[in-house]
Amino acid sequence: MDGDNPANAFNGWWPSALTAITSHAHIPSVMMEATIKGSVGSVALLVEAVDREIQISTLESAYLTPVWSASGRLESVTQQYQIAGADVAAMGIAVPSENYSASYWYRREWTTTECRVYAPWLVSDSEHSPSVSADLTPAPHGLGFVPIVWVRNLRRLPVILTVNAPSSGQSRP
User: pTM score, two decimals?
Assistant: First the structure.
């Protein structure tokens, strides 16, 4: 029976579903952005479901710390960068008005089971121990893998310049 052949699934709803996901998640523009950002190093693509929609976004690898297993599997990724106190307040977190222009650390960690978002803390507070914010942390994803695709640019080969010194009596062009 043709309906029992798994290959027939590709003639059914798969092509239209993949086309819908590709256009709805803006994959062509995300991949162009990833190509530009990753051209001089690495780039990470975060794949997540937000409000029941697939979203793909690029993450700056300069602010990411990946942890790899011995077999090369991505085990976790930590993102940490500085934001202004006004941005912290825009997240719905109480910030004293005198700290609106102060710098805060923003930190997220993705693992194979969850994404943890930490409560932002003042950069100047060197004694602070980061704590997970229940209000900012989404529900566990339970995927069994980190929902980030790490794209590493090809390792550059060393450039070796050979300069042929002119022999005595010859001039260089």
Answer: 0.71
